Amino acid sequence: MDDVDSDEFKRRRRRRSVAIAWALAALVVLFFIVTLVRLGGNVADRTF
After folding, report:
1. What is the pLDDT of residues 7-43, one digit of tens each?
2. Helices and strands (H, E) in the chain, number of each type
3. Considering the entire predicted model, what is its pTM?
């Protein structure tokens, strides 16, 4: 494997890693929003 292939491989791996990171971040946001929607107005009514 020469330097050109190695650079291309690194570039593709980096792009794939960034895509996976964005997908995970989107799932975290989705779960957070779903949790807020499911709790609804009960969040403000909690007493400690």
Report:
1. 999 999 999 999 999 999 999 999 999 998 998 867 6
2. 1, 0
3. 0.68
